[in-house]
Design goal:
Strand content: 25-35%
Radius of gyration: 30 Å
Helix content: 40-55%
Number of strands: 8
Structural class: alpha+beta
Strand order of the largest sheet: 1-8-3-6
Order of helices and strands: HEEEEEEEEHH
Largest sheet: 4 strands, antiparallel
Length: about 210
């Protein structure tokens, strides 16, 4: 099932509104197709893009990041996974495109994460005029540790999904290979029976006819 660009845009907007400037989603990229995502970024704001092909073909995809004036900030071809950080040189809409145009029959499942700007601090911690208390410091440390745990869990889920897909593909290939070997063994056995049957069959000779 192909995810429509409209649905992707809606999910992109909802997640962007909930998490601020952090977007994380998984989408299907059909064969010979291009999917682009757009984000408004202010000048001198840092942004980080991370992506990985989960399933499909050779697990590769073309990626390109363009600025407001069509300048190419990042471009890679047939990449399985990568990450890139950049700082916006001007305010405008930045475009991130994933291309599967080089593939004519294989769909891809792609994971993408786009973080724009610094991460928001805990409420009441960022705007502190005095030294943080021990409780506030512990809460902030827990917050940072939980974010790291979320990142690790995401990467492990992606690796698990990719490994499961590869195992399923390998299992299917082994199944059909076994079916082919079984058919070949049956054909060889049938041929041997027919040959042995011809060896022991009674054939009329010239002397027996006389």
């Amino acid at each position: 099932m192909t995810v429509s660009p409209i649905l992707i845009a809606v999910l992109f907007t909802i997640i962007n509104g909930i998490l601020g400037k952090s977007v994380e989603l998984t989408f299907e990229l059909p064969d010979s197709a291009v999917e682009c995502f757009y984000e408004q970024i202010e000048k001198n704001t840092s942004a980080a893009l991370e992506y990985q092909v989960i399933t499909g073909g050779q697990y590769d995809v073309d990626v390109k990041v363009e600025g407001p004036n069509k300048q190419i900030i990042y471009q890679q071809q047939k990449m399985q996974y990568d990450s890139h950080q950049f700082t916006a040189q001007q305010t405008g809409v930045y475009k991130v495109c994933f291309s599967n145009e080089f593939s004519t029959f294989s769909h891809k499942l792609v994971y993408m994460e786009l973080n724009v700007g610094p991460e928001k601090a805990l409420p009441g911690v960022g705007d502190h005029a005095t030294v943080l208390t021990q409780l506030e410091t512990s809460a902030n440390d827990i917050h940072l540790a939980l974010n790291q745990i979320i990142d690790h869990q995401t990467h492990h889920r992606l690796r698990e999904a990719q490994s499961r897909k590869r195992a399923e593909d390998l299992n299917e290939r082994v199944f059909w290979w076994s079916m082919g070997e079984t058919f070949a063994i049956l054909c060889v056995a049938l041929a041997q029976v027919m040959i042995l049957k011809n060896f022991f069959s009674d054939k009329p000779t010239l002397y027996s006819r006389m």
